[in-house]
Amino acid sequence: MAAIISDELAEEAAPPRPRRRRPVPVWRWVILVLTGVYFLIPLYAALRFAGIASFGQVVHQTGFSDALILSLKLAVMTTVLTLVLMVPTTIYVHLRLPRLRRLLESITILPIVIPPVVLIVGVLDVSPGFLKSTPYLLGLVYVILAMPFAYRALDAGLRALELRTLVDAASSLGARWPATLWRVILPNLRTALLSATVLTVALVLGEFTMASLDLYQTFPVWIVAFDQTSGPVSTAASLLALFVTWFFLMLIVTLASRRSRRGGGGQVELFSVRRTVR
Amino acid sequence: MEATNISSGTTASATGGRPASGGAPVSMQKVSRSFGTVRALNGLSLDIAPGELVALLGPSGCGKTTALRILAGFETADSGTVTVDGKNIAPVPAAKRDMGMVFQSYSLFPNMSALDNVGFGLRMRKMGTAGRRRRAHELLELVGLAAQAGQFPHQLSGGQQQRVALARALAIEPRVLLLDEPLSALDAKVRLQLREQIRSLQQRLGITTLFVTHDQEEALSMADRVGVMKDGMLEQIAVPSELYTRPATAFVAEFVGTMNRIPGELSSGGQATALGTVTDVQAGCADVPAGPVDVLVRPENLRIAAIAGGNGIVTSRTFLGSVTRISVLLSGDVTVQVDVPSATADQLAPGASVQVSLDGSPVQVAGRS
């Protein structure tokens, strides 16, 4: 069957994506170098002080792998719970209760306002015994701590989508809710989901106060406890904590980018909501 | 309704052996819908014949989009009935209504190629990958975008995106096609081309179509019948020419095409006097009481002659091709538009004194505004 719509229209091509290459002014380099120096010198000093050999010792210390594994388990648990709770909530609020967005925003800020000490003492006071006896109580509390970051990331992602139209289009084409969510909304929220995941994981891998008050040896708690023995080795442990966190964040970003490219979604950019050219 | 089969060779319809597309009659009876205190629809009744394209035209907030969304299943009516093919569709969710819809803009799924967008509805109907791809290709060919099958929405222009959206809506062989201002986000030139193409495709496939727009030119040029809406009700529904020449109400008269309001008098005998001309009044103005009225006249129903000491002065002149539109300031601070053949417009330069009069054809009257 011949095309009923003539090819004239095909001429009208998509607008070229603007690719500007502005010369970077000198002062930008100055700032970049100064900032780099500010961050890197302490790291370098710490590295020199610790010496490479200390790293080997850290890994073989008692409790190292247990603490790291516990932290990673908590990170996975917190991330999964956060996404399972926050993704449907934010989507629902965007679609059905847009007026509640303000309220939700202020509620999600509470965990930042309330000091962690207060939060964990309160939680320990009221939580039932069976929860107190497992480290996974921490995971539940971390979900609350991660809420402000996860919500903001998801909210920004949803705002950049024409959510209402996409949902209507999907349903007019015969998609029920699960299909709409899985095939239309989530793939387009990739960047937001990634940001939420990275922020949550970083938060869990670095949290000290609550874990320490809950008397569980997560990775940060272990480092502090271990700090007391030998100067170079404890410095090596701190550096290792930093590198481990970096490693996992990079891993998440790399995996997500690769999946996204395969799916045609383009490069995933961390923390920035990429608006598609229209 | 010449060709009801849009795709040769894919009679194994994903929608259950029903003949490909074709039109189903649509009927909305006394449909009302309120949002809070706002009555978006106020007892709308509308019948669309199989294969017919009806445009709903009206200012923003007149309820036309609500009517479309109720038909699509995105909104529910507070009262009234909606039937397709004689069956009440109120309990049927949007996902099961088999209605193809084209939205104003940005409705393509950004994470899918043009081909996958078109195939989405078929995928939801559990059609196999090979059949789905073949059919999606055929539809992209139909809208002239076969070469763009692998491109993502952000790589397509606005016009191309809307054509993919059209192909996507047609892919599910819908019983009814719903167009929600599909052209309003496009450039004038693309809009014009796409308008003709949507219309010819719709006629060829014979799909019952409801088209919502605020652009009267679009409605008049594309639709079999145009319904003019105001305050949640139909003011008039008629073929475009009738709407233009015999508007049922003053609102329709002024909303469709250009209309002059000229102060005049309505006699108790049903004759109107304006610009010194006495003329008959059209049926449909019976509720206007005798006395001072506004006489409604189209630019082509006014006569104009360059005369020293006439009743008006030309203020501007706009060349529109075969006709030229002259703006004339009449005494009493009334400006009217008069269309004259461009060949005779030379002497009607801005500043010229002219005599404007009615051409004697029956006019419409409205209460003095």
Describe the structure.
The complex is a heterodimer of chains A (278) and B (369). Chain A has helices at residues 8-11, 26-50, 52-59, 64-96, 101-113, 116-126, 129-132, 136-159, 163-172, 177-188, 190-206, 209-213, 219-226, 231-262. Chain A is mainly α and 278 residues long. Chain A has a single domain (63-262), classed as MetI-like (MetI-like fold), CATH 1.10.3720. In chain A, α5 packs antiparallel against α8 and α11 packs antiparallel against α14. The radius of gyration of chain A is 24 Å and the shape is globular. The model of chain A is unreliable at 1-14 and 262-278 (pLDDT under 50). Chain B has 369 residues and is of the alpha+beta class. Chain B folds into two domains: 26-245, Rossmann fold (3-Layer(aba) Sandwich); 258-367, RNA polymerase II/Efflux pump adaptor protein, barrel-sandwich hybrid domain (OB fold (Dihydrolipoamide Acetyltransferase, E2P)). In chain B, 23% of the residues lie in helices and 33% in strands. Chain B contains eight helices and 20 strands. Chain B has a six-stranded mixed sheet, sandwiched between helices. A five-stranded antiparallel sheet of chain B has the order 13-12-11-14-20. In chain B, strands 15-19-16-17-18 form a five-stranded antiparallel sheet, with no helix packed on it. The two termini of chain B are 46 Å apart. The model of chain B is unreliable at 1-21 (pLDDT under 50). Chains A and B meet through α1, α9 and α10 of A and β6, α2, α3, α4 and α5 of B.
